[in-house]
Specification:
Residues 2-227 form the ABC transporter domain. This protein is an alpha/beta fold and 330 residues long. Helix content is 36%, strand content 24%. It has helices at 40-47, 71-74, 90-100, 105-114, 130-142, 160-175, 187-193, 211-216, 230-239, 247-253, 258-266, 280-289, 304-312; strands spanning 2-11, 14-24, 29-33, 55-60, 75-78, 148-152, 179-183, 196-201, 204-210, 222-226, 243-246, 272-276, 296-300. The longest helix has 16 residues, at 160-175. The radius of gyration is 25 Å and the shape is elongated. The two termini are 30 Å apart. Bound molecules: adenosine-5'-triphosphate. Adenosine-5'-triphosphate binds at residues 11, 14, 16, 34, 36-42.
Length: 330
Amino acid sequence: MIEARGLTKRYGGKVAVDDLSFTVRPGVVTGFLGPNGAGKSTTMRMILGLDRPTRGTVLVDGRHYRDLASPARHVGALLESRAIHTGRSARDHLLALAHTHGIPRRRVEEVIDLVGLREVARKRAGGFSLGMGQRLGIASALLGDPGTLVLDEPVNGLDPEGVRWIRDLLRGLAAEGRTILLSSHLMSEMAMTATDLIVVGRGRLIQETTVEEFTRGASGNRVHVRSPQAAELAELAAREGATVTYSAALAGMGSTAAASGLEAARGSEADAIEVAGLPSERIGELARTYGIALYELTPRLASLEEAFMDITRDAVEFTTAAPATSEGTR
Ligand SMILES: Nc1ncnc2c1ncn2[C@@H]1O[C@H](COP(=O)(O)OP(=O)(O)OP(=O)(O)O)[C@@H](O)[C@H]1O
């Protein structure tokens, strides 16, 4: 369990983390999302005692990192991907770490198998591919069999097989009851790996939520409807304030033009519309009230990426259109 309360980090005049409070619970993977410069790495470093908060606290298993009697047994970390440049073999690297932390040798063999490095365990880690390096990094994080894992961009630069491997591993480790905090810029990957979400922007908490809730709340949500009376239903939905787009015209029109969508629907034989701004339940009720047959009524959730862009739009530190000054970002 990780608990941050009023966590703040200031570097000179720059507030990197601003009064951040959240709880990362055990048993699920928690995604840590935020635009570049949002303060994710700084927060992770404070969790791990590598940076001192200017204000506030962050506790692992109820204690400050520095007060944990054997930190490696409580929390393992993989900070932003740095290949391990070492002339040592993977096994020797892990043995040295185990020795430092008073961890038995047999655990080294266990983690080598767990991360699938058995075949290359005797090879020089400095010559490892990025994927193997990440596996070794994760083996190091798991060495103390910690209840909590903090992973900053662990899938950066990995091939699809490696990405999938990390996803399955993390979900498995969470299912064992561990607490896992994971940052990633790969939204589709985060959507498949994480259950809970902490979303930050400019150092502040934007939302502490779940992947499901986060995408449900996004404005990109639409309902796909097929009906032989699509035009009639489109008109009824538009009257309730929905934006209706005629599906066949979607590709050409974008999803904004309610009126032209209606025009298109009226003048066509096609039976499919996209309705934004009205829940599927209400569309179903309208259809029943007006005796409209429905062939299909399918809510389409925004992707995590769409939800993220939607919600963090104002929290992006630098945009290409209008670069913000450091004053302007506060
Ligand atoms: N040691 C430091 N000295 C000065 N400013 C820093 C330092 N570390 C981070 N910052 C600033 O604090 C802010 C937060 O940075 P941080 O690296 O924590 O963000 P992040 O969310 O991890 O970003 P990214 O997704 O790009 O890795 C940024 O504006 C960054 O420039």
